[in-house]
Amino acid sequence: MISVNDFKTGLTVEVDGDIFTVLDFQHVKPGKGAAFVRSKLKNLRNGNTVEKTFRAGETIGRALIENRDVQYLYASGQDHAFMDNETYDQFTLSEEQLKWELNFLKENMNVKIVSYQGEILGINLPNSVELRVVETEPGIKGNTATGATKNAKVETGLNVQVPLFINEDDVLLIDTREGKYISRA
C-alpha cells in the first residue's frame, strides 16, 4: 500500500482493480475543507487517461510492474511474435495491443515487455529509433526561408514531417513518444 501523498510521476498503482501509471499529480490545500490530491492516471490495460481525486493521506495498492527484454520477431496476420531474451520463450501480442508501437517496430528489434502478475500489458519502446525513408518528394531548392517541411513515409508505414533536404533511403532518428523527426542517423 502507498499513500497518495507519496505520488511520483511514473509510479504504477492499482485502483478499482485496474493498473494505472501516474502521469501528473497536484496536492491541493484549499483554505476551507480537507486537502486532496488531484491526479491524471493512464490505464495500462486499455491506454485510457482518467483524472481522479483522492483525499490526502488515502492509501491505494502499489502495482509492481515487471519489465523484461524481448525481441520482436515477425508479424503473422493480426498477431506479432516476440521472444524473451533470457528464456527464449515466444509469445504473441495482437495488433490491437500494439496500435502506436507498430509505427516503430522492425524485425529483430529489442524492446521491453511490460507485465503485471504474468499479464502482459504492452511494450516499452526506446525513446528513439532509426527508420529508413521509403517514399518522399524531392526538395525544391531555395524553398527553405521558413524552415519548410515535407511528408516522408518510413519503412514501417509511419508518415513524418521532415526538412526538405531529406531524400529516399536516408536513415532518420524518430522520436517514439510523439512520432516526430529528430535528425538524420
Automatic annotation (TrEMBL):
Residues 129-184 form the Elongation factor P C-terminal domain. It comes from the Bacteria. The keyword Cytoplasm applies. Its main location: cytoplasm. GO terms for molecular function: translation elongation factor activity. Involved in peptide bond synthesis. Stimulates efficient translation and peptide-bond synthesis on native or reconstituted 70S ribosomes in vitro. Probably functions indirectly by altering the affinity of the ribosome for aminoacyl-tRNA, thus increasing their reactivity as acceptors for peptidyl transferase. This is Elongation factor P.
